[in-house]
């Protein structure tokens, strides 16, 4: 009944504008990227970084043993020359934390139980924060070696300005057996890669425009103007061993390293700035990504690769003629069109997320660039400090001033009132750890015939407009 339906004489004494004594639940993010990570524990006292080792494959043997040399205890073989390669990666440990205070007196006159609401929003903030860290690490490596010229050369010269120098600053070298970074069983030469800075003796082959050059140096811009800065992009200048022609050094031209990560774009666009209206996400892109991952021997996750995408990318799939033909004649009970969602298809598991990186097109107003990513097993590593809830600095049993509850490896803490009036409760969360993306340099056409030269092989980014 509206207030106007009451007699005029009664309306002034009826309280209006009651505050509802609860908060309506806010919008929630759909987090996903952290789930792809293989989790590793940091042992107590390890310090701020930890080094892990991933074993590579030995090359195939197709030459028969010479029977004439099949003598002695070694049967004519040298076991020291057949050691398996290893690849090491370093994971950095950092502390992430947020805290807020709650006055237990003032909350009693508030419109909602703020303690529970604070706990809920703290948990949501923690999950979104870790998911963004995972996303940035994943995309940071799988953009490696893919960029574009940002300033047209006035004349042929050895330096070009680029949007992102990541993937152009180091090359995988070869270290001898017994070095600290590459110790390995056996004897002889160990073909294990160790990343070294680019230089005259360690050049990186790149394609600029239509021709091939060698990067021998780089400079980071004092003012980072990279369009991918929100994903860790770093603008700068690449120095080549010879002069780059003006035709190749024209703004917008693609610059790609020989070992670049694979980034797929509709209509074979060379870089994100070249995307046009109509370059949408299709089943063909998914099939190309699956073919790449399969050719590199990337293992699936419980039978399928994971594709993380936002709702606009998913929407474009539903308009793709190949996709619609796949479900042509499907019954009305089919969940794909009944609920507008895709689960498993073409060897891919589709996982919706609201954390997908989106940016405005660098040159076409009104267009946005979206980036689904298809991942296989081992694409991302999460390191968690295993001492986060140890009783030497936190009390989980309520015996001290701080209670710690571990939720998905994140510490949710509550500190009892310690102020003079005994009123202020501190509600916080913290996480000690980090994310890293191991490379697969040791997997090459020598060990897997269909493998690519990409240093990072376990995920594929698809760039499209939408």
TrEMBL record:
<feature type="region of interest" description="Disordered">
    <location>
        <begin position="59"/>
        <end position="78"/>
    </location>
</feature>
<protein>
    <submittedName>
        <fullName>Phage protein</fullName>
    </submittedName>
</protein>
<feature type="compositionally biased region" description="Polar residues">
    <location>
        <begin position="60"/>
        <end position="78"/>
    </location>
</feature>
């Amino acid at each position: 009944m509206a207030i106007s339906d009451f007699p005029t004489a009664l309306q002034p004494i009826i309280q209006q504008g009651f505050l509802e004594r609860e908060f309506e639940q806010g919008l929630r993010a759909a987090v996903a990227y952290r789930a792809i990570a293989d989790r590793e524990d940091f042992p107590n006292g390890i310090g701020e970084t930890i080094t892990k080792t991933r074993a590579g494959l030995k090359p195939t043997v197709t030459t028969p043993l010479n029977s004439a040399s099949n003598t002695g205890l070694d049967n004519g073989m040298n076991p020291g020359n057949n050691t398996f390669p290893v690849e090491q990666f370093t994971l950095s440990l950092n502390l992430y934390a947020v805290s807020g205070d709650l006055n237990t007196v003032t909350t009693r006159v508030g419109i909602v139980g703020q303690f529970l609401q604070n706990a809920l929003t703290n948990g949501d903030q923690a999950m979104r924060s870790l998911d963004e860290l995972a996303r940035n690490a994943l995309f940071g490596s799988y953009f490696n070696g893919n960029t574009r010229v940002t300033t047209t050369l006035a004349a042929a010269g050895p330096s070009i300005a680029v949007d992102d120098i990541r993937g152009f600053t180091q090359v995988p070298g070869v270290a001898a057996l017994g070095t600290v970074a590459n110790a390995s069983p056996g004897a002889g030469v160990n073909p294990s890669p160790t990343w070294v800075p680019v230089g005259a003796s360690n050049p990186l082959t790149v394609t600029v425009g239509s021709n091939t050059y060698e990067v021998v140096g780089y400079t980071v811009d004092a003012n980072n103007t990279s369009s991918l800065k929100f994903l860790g992009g770093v603008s700068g200048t690449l120095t080549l061993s010879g002069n780059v022609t003006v035709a190749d050094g024209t703004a917008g031209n693609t610059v790609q390293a020989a070992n670049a990560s694979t980034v797929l774009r509709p209509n074979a666009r060379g870089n994100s700035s070249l995307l046009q209206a109509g370059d949408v996400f299709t089943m063909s892109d998914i099939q190309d990504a699956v073919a790449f991952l399969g050719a590199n021997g990337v293992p699936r996750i419980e039978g399928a690769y994971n594709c993380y995408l936002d709702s606009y990318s998913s929407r474009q799939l539903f308009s793709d003629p190949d996709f619609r033909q796949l479900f042509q004649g499907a019954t009305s009970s089919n969940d794909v069109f009944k609920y507008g969602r895709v689960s498993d298809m073409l060897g891919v598991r589709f996982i919706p997320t609201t954390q997908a990186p989106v940016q405005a097109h660098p040159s076409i107003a009104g267009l946005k660039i979206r980036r689904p990513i298809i991942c296989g097993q081992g694409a991302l590593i999460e390191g968690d400090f295993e001492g986060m809830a140890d009783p030497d600095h936190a009390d989980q049993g309520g015996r001290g001033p701080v209670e710690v509850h571990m939720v998905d490896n994140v510490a949710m803490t509550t500190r009892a009132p310690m102020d003079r009036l005994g009123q202020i409760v501190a509600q916080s969360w913290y996480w000690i750890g980090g994310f890293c993306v191991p490379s697969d340099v040791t997997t090459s056409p020598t060990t897997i015939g269909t493998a690519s030269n990409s240093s990072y092989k376990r995920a594929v980014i698809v760039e499209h407009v939408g």
